[in-house]
């Protein structure tokens, strides 16, 4: 009995230590979050409105070795701040990023697409000429393409797409089903199926290049089920929160991406 | 001239001593390159392991063992030595996982993309694997004693015939073990895996074994190379790179990902414990994602079950054939 109680005492001692360890980490994390939000508020107060954000970003990105052609924002478990997502979209135009996708595995972003549209209108002050709504949006095809602004054709376009959980594995399942149908009608043989065929078909459906950079919002690092086929060589960077994201944070992430060296297996 | 000798001679002596020490350190590793070994943890490390085990420990951890070549460059040794050290680290990590109660581990040993490397390096890697798989078969008793089930996932047809035979033998030998599972991704990419799963399903429909309505997420999962394993709960990538490099893209949808800024041969128990702490803190937020993914699985019809059983049987038959092939 003495041995039993000594064992259970040791057991609860380990348990207490484990709990204390996690409490300590939570406390440190809380302090870090407070510090970041205080710093953000201070930055906002001291913000010099002398330089246009657009020019600032386009000047800065010229210093980077590379800029992604397709950026994804994975919202994760955060509540959606449409204003901040719209800001990121506009900064992408300034940075020369041609494709932006927003991923919310809950599907709320897809449901509330009009909110994002409204936020983008506000941020661009109605000049939505640069924005092309991709195949994965409800607004796709609804807006008449004009492309001119004061008689000048704006060259930098941003394709916007919104994804949810069903666009990942679900899209592959749908593709498999359609290939099965083609096989039944004799248009294709199973022996002919390979990576390239699947890639071509998925590309045709989505009309976007594979994402090169993904920003995961929140503390948890996970793909949350985002497009498994397309994230083969995507760089994943953690963004503490997309709420009140500043230009500085955005540029820091692009700078980190610029430093990544891809070897592609070689 | 004598001055120069006086300066260089001590340097030479020091270099000579260092090279002997280095050899001494690496010689034991040349001899004891076993897959399964005894615990190397100090008492304080074991204490920390005991503490961490009070929280949730992932049942299946996947590793991208990156950084062998950079390690070799950093230490001025040959690339193959870097890979060899990498194998050492793998064996050590397996022991740590056993100590932690992690019953399944999947490691990314060789990607199909790695065939693009110089012929010299590919041949050296193949030779290293040949030695390792041969050794694995020699350690048969240890494997059976510890109940280790070895599975090699990937497109084995891309490998040299003799290695295919060794792999098949190892897999058949250990297929009924169920205490610990070691999956080695060899000649593997996630896209190739997903493509062959789609091909298997289409083939099933062509044969009339399946209907189009049977094609669900769950069916595709069962056609993957990893069909007999649960999805990894934690994915660890070393060397500081922050991408998945075509590794288990289908299976890590709900996994906690940990990018460790350390080269694989320098990976330590502390890094592993840090990854598990991160997992413990992320778990609650990932459960709903797993549940949503589960819900999207779809149902499994009678035809699907029969198809899956047939597929598993045909894969086993291929392995049996390979293991008996005349090399």
From TrEMBL, chain B:
Its cofactor is Mg(2+). Pathway: Protein modification; protein glycosylation. One of its GO terms (biological process) is polyprenol biosynthetic process. Keywords: Endoplasmic reticulum, Magnesium, Membrane, Transferase. This is Alkyl transferase. It catalyses: n isopentenyl diphosphate + (2E,6E)-farnesyl diphosphate = a di-trans,poly-cis-polyprenyl diphosphate + n diphosphate. InterPro entries: UPP_synth-like, UPP_synth-like_CS, UPP_synth-like_sf. GO terms for molecular function: ditrans,polycis-polyprenyl diphosphate synthase [(2E,6E)-farnesyl diphosphate specific] activity. Signal peptide: none annotated. NCBIfam families: uppS. With NUS1, forms the dehydrodolichyl diphosphate synthase (DDS) complex, an essential component of the dolichol monophosphate (Dol-P) biosynthetic machinery. Adds multiple copies of isopentenyl pyrophosphate (IPP) to farnesyl pyrophosphate (FPP) to produce dehydrodolichyl diphosphate (Dedol-PP), a precursor of dolichol which is utilized as a sugar carrier in protein glycosylation in the endoplasmic reticulum (ER).
């Amino acid at each position: 009995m003495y041995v039993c109680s000594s064992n259970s005492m040791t057991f609860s001692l380990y348990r207490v230590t484990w709990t204390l360890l996690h409490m300590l980490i939570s406390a440190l994390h809380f302090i870090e979050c407070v510090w970041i939000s205080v710093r953000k508020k201070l930055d906002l107060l001291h913000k010099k409105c002398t330089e246009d954000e657009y020019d600032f970003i386009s000047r800065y990105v010229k210093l980077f070795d590379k800029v992604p052609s397709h950026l994804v924002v994975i919202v994760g478990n955060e509540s959606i701040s449409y204003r901040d997502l719209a800001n990121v979209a506009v900064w992408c135009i300034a940075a020369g990023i041609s494709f932006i996708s927003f991923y919310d595995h809950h599907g709320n972003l897809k449901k509330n697409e009009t909110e994002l549209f409204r936020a983008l209108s506000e941020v661009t002050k109605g000049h939505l000429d640069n924005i092309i709504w991709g195949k994965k949006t409800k607004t796709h095809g609804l807006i008449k393409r004009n492309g001119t602004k004061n008689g000048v054709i704006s060259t930098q376009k941003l394709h916007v797409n919104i994804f949810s959980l069903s666009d990942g594995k679900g899209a592959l399942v749908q593709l498999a089903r359609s290939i099965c149908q083609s096989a039944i009608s004799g248009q294709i043989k199973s022996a002919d199926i390979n990576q390239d065929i699947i890639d071509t078909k998925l590309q045709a459906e989505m009309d976007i290049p594979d994402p090169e950079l993904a920003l995961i919002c929140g503390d948890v690092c996970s793909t949350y089920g985002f497009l498994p086929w397309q994230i083969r060589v995507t760089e994943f960077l953690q963004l503490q929160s997309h709420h009140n994201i500043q230009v500085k944070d955005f540029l820091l992430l692009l700078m980190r991406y610029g430093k990544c060296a891809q070897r592609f297996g070689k | 001239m004598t001055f120069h000798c006086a300066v260089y001679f001590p340097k030479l002596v020091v270099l000579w001593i260092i090279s002997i020490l280095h050899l001494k350190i690496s010689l034991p590793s040349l001899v004891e390159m076993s897959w399964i070994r005894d615990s190397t943890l100090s008492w304080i490390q074991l204490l920390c392991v005991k503490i961490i085990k009070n929280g949730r420990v992932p049942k299946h951890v996947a590793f991208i063992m990156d950084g062998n070549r950079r390690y070799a460059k950093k230490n001025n040794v040959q690339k193959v030595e870097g890979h060899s050290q990498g194998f050492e680290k793998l064996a050590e990590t397996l022991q740590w996982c056993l100590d932690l109660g992690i019953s399944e581990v999947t490691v990314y040993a060789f990607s199909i993309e790695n065939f693009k490397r110089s012929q010299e390096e590919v041949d050296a890697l193949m030779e290293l694997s040949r030695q390792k798989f041969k050794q694995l078969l020699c350690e048969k008793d240890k494997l059976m004693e510890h109940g280790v089930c070895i599975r090699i996932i990937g497109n084995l047809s891309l490998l040299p015939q003799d290695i295919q035979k060794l792999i098949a033998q190892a897999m058949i030998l250990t297929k009924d073990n169920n205490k610990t599972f070691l999956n080695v991704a060899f000649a593997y990419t996630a896209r190739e895996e997903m493509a062959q799963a789609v091909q298997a399903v289409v083939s099933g429909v062509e044969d009339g074994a399946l209907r189009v309505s049977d094609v669900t997420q769950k069916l595709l999962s069962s056609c993957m190379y990893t069909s007999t394993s649960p999805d990894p709960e934690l994915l660890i990538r070393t060397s500081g790179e922050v991408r998945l490099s075509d590794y288990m893209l289908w299976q890590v949808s709900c996994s906690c990902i940990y990018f460790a800024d350390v080269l694989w041969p320098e990976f330590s128990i502390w890094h592993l414990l840090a990854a598990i702490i991160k997992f413990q803190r992320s778990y609650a937020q990932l459960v709903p994602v797993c549940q949503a993914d589960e819900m999207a699985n779809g149902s499994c019809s009678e035809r699907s079950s029969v198809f899956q059983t047939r597929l598993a049987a045909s894969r086993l038959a291929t392995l049996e054939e390979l293991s008996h092939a005349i090399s």
